[in-house]
Amino acid sequence: MNKAKVGTILPALNEAETIGKVIDEIPQQALEQAGYSVEVLVVDNGSTDQTTQIAREKEARVITEARRDKGRAVRTAFEPVNGDFVFMINSDYTYPATYIADRLNLLNQGYKKKVTGLFAAKT
């Protein structure tokens, strides 16, 4: 039986101060123990600080969207992200990534989306 995949998109522009904390908070181990595979995809939108280096050190996959615009960065991520469920989280720690497991449970119960600042979609 194949594991369901959870993809997490983090659009980022000069978020070196927070990107590591956000990635660390993604409940990867708990999700994997629940039977999911997890991918963290950072979309760098032209950072000039250490954002991409920190993301790679945290084992996130990093892609680049040179045209600066958060919406464009998110759209760019949807093609390469690998997931049956996809979450978008702000890289500036606006919302805690720990909510992913709760939102995943809602999606599995049939909810299409839950407005909490943590966008989630079942693909």
Description of the structure:
The protein has a single domain, classed as Spore Coat Polysaccharide Biosynthesis Protein SpsA, Chain A (Alpha-Beta Complex). By secondary structure, the chain is an alpha/beta fold. The chain contains 5 helices and 5 strands; from the N terminus they run βααβαβαβαβ. α3 (51-57) links the parallel β2 and β3 (61-64). The radius of gyration is 14 Å and the shape is globular. It has helices spanning 19-25, 28-33, 51-57, 70-78, 100-108, and strands spanning 4-12, 36-44, 61-64, 85-88, 119-122.
Topology:
Elements: E1 4-12, H1 19-25, H2 28-33, E2 36-44, H3 51-57, E3 61-64, H4 70-78, E4 85-88, H5 100-108, E5 119-122
Parallel strand pairs: 1-2, 1-4, 2-3
Antiparallel strand pairs: 4-5
Spatial ordering of strands, largest sheet: 3-2-1-4-5
Distance between the termini: 19 Å
How many helices does DSSP assign?
A: 5
CATH architecture field: Alpha-Beta Complex
CATH level 4 superfamily: Spore Coat Polysaccharide Biosynthesis Protein SpsA, Chain A
Estimate what percentage of residues fall within beta strands.
Answer: 15-25%
Globally, the shape reads globular
Q: Which bin fits the share of residues in helices?
A: 25-40%
Q: Tags for this entry?
A:
Spore Coat Polysaccharide Biosynthesis Protein SpsA, Chain A; alpha/beta; 24% strand; 123 residues
